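FAQ: What does a ligand-bound record look like?

Like this one, built around zinc ion:
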Amino acid sequence: MDAQRTLRRQISCVGIGLHSGNKVNLSLKPAPADFGVRFRRRDLGGHDVPATVHHLAGIQLATGLACNEVSVETVEHLLAALVSLNVDNVLIELNSPEVPIMDGSAAPFVYLIQEAGVKPLQAPRKYLKIVRPIAISKGDKRISLYPSEHFKVTYSISYDHPLLRHQSRTLRITEESFIEEVAPARTFTFLKDVEMLRQNGLALGGSLENAIVLGETGVLNNALRFEDEFVRHKILDAVGDLALVGYPVIGHLVAHRAGHALHTEFAAKILEDAHCWRLVEGSSERALSPVSVPVKASAH
Ligand SMILES: [Zn+2]
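The answer part, i.e. the structure of the complex:
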């Protein structure tokens, strides 16, 4: 049996919110089978916000969720680390609306999960296996999912900037490849946009410690972690946003110039297009056995 997993023990860290600049305490706690991934705002009396597309809210520069007027922001890097390290059930406690930005990548969250350790639970994991293509597009932004035996992502980006024209990469996402090839890739921004964000009271916690900043003639940070760190970070964002379907996906995600708004709209469309996928127990390497479990309903 391919079992659901949770953390072995609680683990905590402190960071700052990218937009507020406020200090944030984050704790990851073990949770029982079929609990899923839920955020809990300790500063607001402990209301839960399940990490599913049913609770999407405020998708602009990052992905936000809300439930009963309780919100959490910038969830995508943490969700990408959890789904890629096969943590199905976890309670994420915060004392602030923003998940801390850490270094702008998912590597610190991978480290936290590895420090806590992961253990199996007495319940089978269910995967959402794509059986027919699903696609949406807006202008030249596109995103689609195709049947595949593995979870793969192909991402391409192009910007009108001398240092960042076109980058494209295909990766099969496994725990190992995520940790090595995707998690360390940092978020990026353009210097010309930083001032505009600050004037709007955003990115107050942003610095060269937590984002790659592209000036007109060069990267303001000393060095990139990968030559194509930008497109790798887009893969990271897409993996995190896709996690909001509530199950690990088996399929080939292909995206061009998309962003959080399109990723999350697409995640919601996947659940609506129920004829395009089925829930299976066990990943593709094993015998597939369809299960007749309904999509997790929004009970909150
Ligand atoms: Zn990101």
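Follow-up question: can I read anything off the structure? Yes, for example: Confidence is low (pLDDT under 50) at residues 284-300.
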